[in-house]
Write a structure and sequence with these properties.
The protein has 320 residues and is an alpha/beta fold. The chain folds into 3 domains: 111 residues, no CATH class; 127 residues, NAD(P)-binding Rossmann-like Domain (Rossmann fold); 46 residues, no CATH class. Helices cover 33% and strands 21% of the residues. It has 10 helices and 14 strands. The strands form 4 sheets. A 6-stranded mixed sheet has the order 3-2-1-6-4-5. Strands 8-7-9-10 form a 4-stranded parallel sheet, sandwiched between helices. A two-stranded antiparallel ribbon has the order 11-12. A hairpin with a 4-residue loop joins strand 2 and strand 3. Helix 4 packs parallel to helix 8 and helix 5 packs across helix 6. It is globular and about 70 Å long. The N and C termini lie far apart (46 Å).
């Protein structure tokens, strides 16, 4: 697969909803086998499609690409030996020593390509239609599904599902949505209505940890709003969560204030020891156990900084 073939394949993967990284050689020092403009796609599982260089460069690029996918932050790598570059390495560039008999060097830019957001709006109200239109305007893959037609097969762990059936089969729609384990699940309705829906589902045996992920009411609190303005509030919340990195496949976004059924414990909170952010003390917050204590973090980067030097953060107050 040549450079332009890689670009075409990248477009296919992005449209299909897969996350991957795109690596591009931006500089080379002969006799490296990589060429300027060489490109490759690296998936989260480490599969490489395209050409980025020989046996020395390829494993290094794959490892870095997997980190880029996980954190959503691009990297600029300089591959070679420290003696080749000395102190002439620009800020922001990561030097990775590699031992190759060819003594060549490469500069590789690795960027994350996140999947197109998948929004599923369940319901047929004017608000539901407005929300679907707004999602499409942002270029999101958006589906508007009537309540009786909705099933868990319409979503997956990367999806954002908003149940806007508004009293017409709320329980059935939420139950189906929970089965899909989406990254986001919101219910349009009052807290009282949400508590009733979740209480009913708890009695039906739906696991409390899944019900605790349902955000009720869905959307940011913008005060008294019309039905169509509620759609704006929900979209604003989704954009905010995506920008903060809170929506990750397989790790549903925990609600800040959820209407949980009676008898279900509220999610505990913890303070990220690196940046000082308050996070949910749960599996979605990168838990790390150290000397019998569990610490939680807002993102993978904070956890990595803490792992490198725990004492630096346990002996002083938060930096933020």
């Amino acid at each position: 697969m040549d450079g332009w073939g890689v670009v075409a394949r990248a477009g296919e993967l992005a449209r299909s909803g897969q996350a991957f990284a795109l690596a591009t050689v931006v500089w080379r020092q002969a006799p490296s086998s990589g060429q300027q403009g060489s490109r490759a796609i690296i998936t989260a599982s480490g599969e490489l499609q395209g050409w980025i260089g020989g046996a020395c460069a390829e494993p290094v690029v794959i490892r870095a690409a997997q980190q880029v996918i996980a954190e959503g932050v691009p990297q600029l790598l300089l591959l070679g030996t420290p003696e080749q570059f000395g102190a002439a390495v620009p800020d922001g560039m990561t030097v990775v020593p590699i031992s190759c008999q060819s003594e060549g060097a490469l500069e590789v830019y690795i960027e994350p390509v996140l999947p197109t957001p998948h929004l599923v709006v369940v319901g047929r109200s004017p608000m539901a239609g407005t929300l679907a239109d707004l999602g499409r305007a942002l270029g999101w893959r958006t589906a508007l599904v009537d309540g009786p037609d909705f099933s868990a097969a319409d979503a997956d762990e990367r999806s954002m599902v908003v149940v806007a059936t508004q009293g017409h089969g709320d329980e059935e729609a939420v139950e189906q949505a929970v089965l899909a384990r989406p990254a986001y699940l919101g219910l349009v309705g009052s807290r009282r209505r949400g508590a009733a829906v979740l209480g009913y589902l708890a009695e039906r045996g739906v696991p409390p940890d899944q019900l605790g992920r349902v955000r009720v009411p869905a959307g940011l609190d913008l005060g008294r709003t019309s039905h169509r303005e509620i759609a704006v509030a929900i979209l604003a919340e989704l954009v905010q969560l995506r920008a903060s990195g809170a929506l990750r496949a397989g790790q549903p976004a925990a609600p800040a204030e959820a209407a949980v059924p009676a008898g279900t414990a509220e999610p505990a909170e913890a303070v990220d020891p690196v940046c000082g952010m308050t996070v949910t003390a749960g599996p979605a917050s990168y838990p790390l156990e150290l000397e019998g204590e569990t610490y939680y973090f807002c993102r993978a980067g904070c956890r990595r900084e803490f792992e490198q030097d725990p004492a630096a953060y346990l002996t002083k107050e938060s930096r933020c």
